[in-house]
Amino acid sequence: DTKIWPVDPQQLSPGALLEAAACLRAGGLVAFPTETVYGLGADGLNGPAVAAIFTAKGRPSDNPLILHIAAMDEVAALTLDFPPLARRLAERFWPGPLTLVLPASSLVPPVVTAGLATVALRMPSHPVARELIRAAGVPVAAPSANRSGRPSPTVAEHVREDLWGRIDGIVDGGACDFGLESTVVDARGEAAVILRPGGVTPEMIEAMGIPVQPFHAIGRRDAVAVAVQGDERPAPTASIQEDFVPPSPGMKYVHYAPQAPLYLLDGNREEQRAALRRLLDTAAAAVKGDGAGEVTGLLLSEETFREIGRRLPGPGDDGPGDKWVVRLTGSREDLTTVAQGLFGAIRSFDQTPVSRIVAETYPPVGIGRAVMNRLEKAAGGRRWLG
Ligand code: TXA
Ligand code: MG
């Protein structure tokens, strides 16, 4: 069975964290909160314990894990080198939502790195994560604590939905602050190459005078790097690309998918609103006709919902009311709220009868890059042309 350890991040309960840490040291699997998303932890120096993470999640074994550390002096033993740019980024953003790709030392088991010569390191800032790692006394290998392919968990309940009975315990420290996974950066060279956008934005890195390089995929034409380049219409990242050798293996897999197919609204904001109005009108007409029709999920900002919401019939209103399920991400005025609400909102459609989800898009600047990267992956290239 899976044990639950409730912990108040403001007032850590040492007993619970010591138990969870002991479980990690004994080779167990423990989910815990970080400032980004919940992680599924194992002793990062214990190969078989780390291998159990892949089994519990159903994760492809060629997708490497992040090692979580509690102090800067742990980097030396785990790496062969801490190049200057990487070190500057660590000094500026650790503890925090930044993961650095560094040359791995022989101390790191191959199962962690999926056989790569590099290891990804992160020092989280969440007090529960920090104290758990410190108490465990080992680097903690942890991917996001979801079943592979599902949206990452931002509350303990999401972990329970995905992994109950498959892991030893869950440290429940409430909701994660940021809500999207860390920024993964390779800064071994002259520039910071962003392999996955997150809370540490390209703008923040550029503000330090460090050049940010758009990532160019090796061996593939259109690449996945659009989140970095800020293209409004990124290429599909839908399926596993056989001919695609990504610098970060996680790039090639479908991610964050709810059970119903998710479509991104096409066009600018005005065009998106028009498409939504057409969608509502057509469906209302269809329902009046034969009473049938699909249940559509709408993944909207508060602003867009205010603008088109009055066209939405309420439940029981003359038919079409039960043909819609609306979930709000957050406010377009403050994209940190969208980042925080996104995965929970996507996930919550699974408890509803929707057969398709239509989602609004956001400007891909600042935090918006990370938001759009996750939405693109959830959509897997599907567009709502409406
Ligand atoms: O915020 C986060 O990063 C969360 C929390 C728990 O820390 N963790 C997380 O882990 O998102 P995961 O496993 O879901 O994503 C790790 C990403 C994957 O895309 C993986 O391919 C990439 O980091 N990665 C890991 N090691 C790498 C390496 N040596 N080189 C390039 N990419 C690597
Ligand atoms: Mg993940």
Q: Which H/E pattern describes the elements?
A: EHEEHEHHEHEHEHEEEHEHEHEHEHEHE
Ligands present: threonylcarbamoyladenylate, magnesium ion
Q: CATH topology of the largest domain, which one?
A: DHBP synthase
Helical content stands at 25-40%
What name goes with the CATH superfamily of the largest domain?
DHBP synthase
- Structural shape: globular
Terminal CA distance reads 47 Å
- The portion of residues forming beta strands comes to 15-25%
The biggest sheet amounts to: 11 strands, mixed
Please explain how this structure is put together.
- With 386 residues, the chain is α/β, with parallel strands linked by helices.
- It has two domains: 170 residues, DHBP synthase (Alpha-Beta Complex); 123 residues, Threonylcarbamoyl-AMP synthase, C-terminal domain (Rossmann fold), CATH 3.40.50.11030.
- The protein has 13 helices and 16 strands.
- The strands form two sheets. It has an eleven-stranded mixed beta sheet with strand order 1-8-2-3-7-4-6-5-9-10-11, with helices on both faces. It has a five-stranded parallel beta sheet with strand order 14-13-15-12-16.
- α11 links the parallel β13 and β14.
- α1 crosses α6 and α12 runs parallel beside α13.
- The longest helix is centred in the last third of the chain and has 22 residues.
- The protein is globular.
- It starts with a strand and ends with a strand.
- The relative contact order is 0.14.
- About 7% of the residues have low confidence.
- Bound molecules: threonylcarbamoyladenylate (TXA) and magnesium ion.
- Threonylcarbamoyladenylate binds next to β5, β6 and β10.
- It comes from Heliomicrobium gestii (Heliobacterium gestii).
- Keywords: ATP-binding, Cytoplasm, Nucleotide-binding, Nucleotidyltransferase, Transferase, tRNA processing.
- It is found in: Cytoplasm.
- Its main location: cytoplasm.
- This is Threonylcarbamoyl-AMP synthase.
